[in-house]
């Protein structure tokens, strides 16, 4: 299967992007293809319904990758109880054709304990785009974020969050495989 991971931060060393990279690593270990589309490295123009930006290199690349995806992972930092602006902008550029019937896993990295508000918002957006929300999500916050920061030193508890991420990604892949066979 081909999984696209859309990393929705515009920060160079974002823990949310590193979480997406870790999910990609797990997906590849399971024998599937993982494509990380990093919005920091490949910024998109601001969405406007009045202006078509299809000729924009990064936007056309994102649209191509999302159409070719069998399943999707959306990763965001949580800013002020919401998803990042760059991820929302990317999602505004996309439509139902990019999500219809595809399993979507939501993941967040929050400065506080958890990023539930951003995850709930992502799931509402996915429903509106006719995607299939994975029943689990990944939320890292507080000390769990250290696992994805530069200079990670193997702090106590790092294995617990890694185990949780593995479990959620495996569940996501199993659901995506079942649905892709049913179509």
From TrEMBL:
- The protein depicted here goes by the name FMN reductase
Q: Which GO terms describe its cellular component?
A: cytosol
* NADPH-dependent FMN reductase-like domain boundaries: 1-140
Q: Which organism is it from?
A: Paenibacillus albidus
InterPro entries (alphabetical): Flavoprotein-like_sf, FMN_Rdtase-like_dom, NAD(P)H-dep_reductase
- List, in alphabetical order, the Gene Ontology terms for molecular function in this entry: FMN binding; oxidoreductase activity
Pfam families listed in its UniProt record: FMN_red
The family note in this entry says: Belongs to the azoreductase type 2 family.
């Amino acid at each position: 299967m081909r999984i696209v991971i859309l990393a929705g931060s515009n920060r160079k060393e974002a823990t949310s992007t590193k979480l997406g990279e870790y999910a990609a690593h797990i997906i590849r270990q399971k024998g599937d293809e993982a494509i990380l589309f990093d919005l920091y490295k490949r910024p998109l123009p601001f969405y406007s319904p009045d202006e078509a930006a299809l000729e924009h290199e990064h936007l056309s690349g994102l649209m191509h990758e999302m159409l070719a995806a069998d399943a999707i992972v959306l990763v965001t930092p949580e800013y002020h109880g919401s998803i990042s602006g760059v991820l929302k902008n990317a999602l505004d550029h996309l439509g139902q054709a990019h999500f219809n019937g595809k399993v979507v896993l939501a993941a967040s990295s929050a400065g506080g304990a958890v990023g539930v508000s951003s995850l709930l918002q992502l799931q509402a957006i996915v429903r509106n785009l006719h995607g299939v929300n994975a029943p689990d999500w990944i939320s890292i916050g507080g000390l769990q974020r250290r696992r994805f920061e530069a200079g990670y030193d193997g702090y106590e508890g790092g294995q617990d969050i890694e185990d949780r991420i593995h479990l959620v990604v495996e569940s996501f892949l199993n659901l995506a495989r079942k649905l892709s066979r049913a179509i």
